[in-house]
Design goal:
With 275 residues, this protein is of the alpha/beta class. Helix 4 runs parallel beside helix 5 and helix 8 runs parallel beside helix 9. The chain binds S-adenosylmethionine.
Amino acid sequence: MNTAMSMPSPDGKTWFERAINRFLSPSGRRVFSGPKAQVIPSGIPDPELYRVPEDFNRLYQPWWNPANKSLLRPEVTANTLLNPQKLYMLRQLARSSLAVPGDIFEAGAGSGGSTRVILDVLQAAGSTKRIWSLDTFEGYQKIDPSKDGNHLQIAGCRCASFEDVTRLLATPNHQVTLIPGLIPGTLSQVKSEVISFAHIDVNLHEPTLAATEFVLQRLSPWGIVVFDDYAWPATYGARTAIDQACSARGLEVTVVPHTTQAFLINSAPMPSHGL
Ligand SMILES: C[S@@+](CC[C@H](N)C(=O)[O-])C[C@H]1O[C@@H](n2cnc3c(N)ncnc32)[C@H](O)[C@@H]1O
């Protein structure tokens, strides 16, 4: 194929992709061009481990099942930066922790979509667990370039207002407490001594470290923590924070393949091993 034919047009699609899609459109199927290149910040000690995911032709993706349509309803998808597979992982792991004693904690409510998914899990199960969810509700206010690089602009965030998020998460029993302001300063407002499930999604080193420490000090046995920003090269500062807090307790995260997420189950400290 010559270069002009493979060049993307202003809408980002190549001539080849357009032609294939014209051919496929009667069947309702489409192809999409591959992912954009990711910049690996210098300073990451293991750049060779940030790889393009394995390209299977077809995989079972239950989040597209119509039975899961409440997960991907507009109320959620319009208010989250998480893609369908990350929302699915978040929901499944939140469900798995329902029998564990404790409250729910979230750092990084954003526009409230991820919180809404967790709240749906509680409501579907008739659980009265409290959710404490923190954010500046004004985007990224404080970035340390020495830890976080420069990929996030100060205050740059597609975030709904505090009032909109409050409306999205309102329940008759006021199950969700939203705490506006900068982590770590706001953590003292979380009046919870025991946590069963946490979602940490603030992208930056300092608030990730503080929120992870806070959660690990309170996490019930078999409690679960989902870290949204572990495997993305741009949020390497969050990965170093999570590793620091976990390794101090002999805990180890598991990376979720094909997403940026990792999770932790508070079982027992990992034995040291050479695997
Ligand atoms: C990736 S967004 C959260 C996305 C959200 N969970 C969703 O479902 O789309 C990260 C959030 O972290 C918040 N944030 C960053 N630094 C913070 C800090 N120090 N304290 C509180 N919130 C912070 C930002 O305001 C932003 O809303």
